[in-house]
């Protein structure tokens, strides 16, 4: 599987919510206590209507006389209830914030780790910005619901139950009337929820697209400027902003429809209660105090119905967010770590074997066909071939960034997919064409290969690679900041850092994708020297773009249209001519320009 899982996208809202909540067991921590607080907070609210009813019916007599002590007691009870409700609501809020923040932080970490575990192919199936939004914006949506909507849901449900029970105590006929008015609305809301859910899923998708387009435009700013494509890019960003706005407006519009309908039903229910309550009162079956208390309770019953529309809004947004986060977490890494069951490679130069290896990118034609090759330990091999002949694909299979479609890759006789990731990443290191530098100091970037290395270790490594003079020439030595993605260094210097990083990591098999960018003669000499130092005594495969690398290698492997067509030392291949002869001729011609 290479695309992100679609299971979550097809799943119903409730099942997504259930699965999402199960994913973060932290949400359930201390839930009983929070619910108890919610119950007290809700129960406190019904004290006021009951006290009013008691005051009207018992505190004030029909003859106009009143019992001041009774009324004082009722008022004091109300004040106490209001205070208790406020304190419980505060404590409940604090508890919910604590548990949800903890749960969401873990969810973010898990989603982020999982993105890292996914293979390169899966990651490239989704735009980077959209992947980022799954770990950031989508989790934020969940957070909003968990901290406000979720709370309201708990309180509202409690309020609905308590208000209904108390209303029934006063008059079951009037309670039936209120329920009869609201039941159709609840039914309609439930159906409507599906439409709203789809609208919010679209909002989350558009937001992900927006992040992807904006981040691509920022990262690609130099290319955009150099091709004077600012207007085209701005138009693309504008279009995505507009699509996001439209999706948001539609979703909010749908939700807005629910609010007036619940207002309307509330007004109708209240009017019906007044009329029917008066009739019951005239018939002697309801006192004035009971009718007033009932009307209070109807307000308590209605308010959860009204907040339900806002909660629905939040819940839909959160469910859409959960769908996208689950989409990441449901995706099985197709290049999986065998973990503790896997093999650990013993230290020492590595032997590599490709046995009948074939590979096709998802949905594409085969790009490697039946590749057989054995590379002896400590051999320095240059891989050459026309562009698109399959060299990088070969290197990615060797470093297990992807698995072959057919055949096997073995290191020291062990199939690569049986080797533990920890052992694999320690023993086999790939230096990509443009080794990514982080926005930190030069020293920290080199240390990335071995975090425990001291400054003295770094200096020694650079000296061994013949780069001591280069380090001396830098304004702040190892503390020199390299800027974002290493932009403060030249392309050649970035390659030097990438080589030093690999040298410090001391792998036993080194796979180098030689950079194609032209460098000045002094850096070229340094690079050659560093390359020699890094590969000495190790099994090393270099995807060679320079003739000098092929000449210096023990052996050259020539790729053509996904097959190995020639193999041997440079001088012998030169004598043979063929594809290597043509490549060599074009290198000579390039150098002459
Ligand atoms: N991520 C990908 N998805 C689909 N096809 C790809 C992908 N990467 C490479 N290919 C295709 O696979 C074939 C081999 O590509 P590969 O990058 O291995 O060639 P290469 O010899 O390293 O080329 P170059 O010297 O230009 O880097 C090409 O036809 C390329 O279009």
TrEMBL record:
Residue intervals of the ABC transmembrane type-1 domain: 32-317
Ranges annotated as spanning the membrane: 27-48, 68-92, 151-170, 176-192, 254-280
Pfam families xref list: ABC_membrane (PF00664), ABC_tran (PF00005)
Membrane topology: Multi-pass membrane protein
Keyword Repressor: no
Species, as recorded: Actinomadura parmotrematis
Record protein name field: ABC transporter ATP-binding protein/permease
Keyword Cell inner membrane attributed: no
Molecular function terms, GO-annotated: ATP binding
InterPro entries: AAA+_ATPase, ABC1_TM_dom, ABC1_TM_sf, ABC_transporter-like_ATP-bd, ABC_transporter-like_CS, P-loop_NTPase, Type_1_exporter
ABC transporter domain residues: 352-586
PANTHER family found in the cross-reference section: ATP-BINDING CASSETTE SUB-FAMILY B MEMBER 10, MITOCHONDRIAL, ATP-DEPENDENT PERMEASE MDL1, MITOCHONDRIAL
Annotated localization: Cell membrane
Keywords: ATP-binding, Membrane, Nucleotide-binding, Transmembrane, Transmembrane helix
